[in-house]
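anyone seen this seq b4? input:
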Amino acid sequence: MSLKDALHAEKKPRGSKFEQWIATLDDDDRKALLAAAVDPELSGQAIVRAIQAAGGSVNKDTISNWRRAHGFTR
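predicted toks r here
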């Protein structure tokens, strides 16, 4: 293994597991999810169900915190 590869392997992922999962989404899905963060017509549980249906692992507390971080307040 080269030094470059060894250093790359030592990097720790940035952000939460949920944020890392968001980074794997294509542009359309990422934009839709970010729009959902501030959409008052979507409950946190509805977002959780949609994410889980798409293969993501998340819970309502993660979504609540994430929504607050993106400006959604109720």
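The mean pLDDT is 91. DSSP finds five helices and no strands in the chain. kinda curious what u guys think
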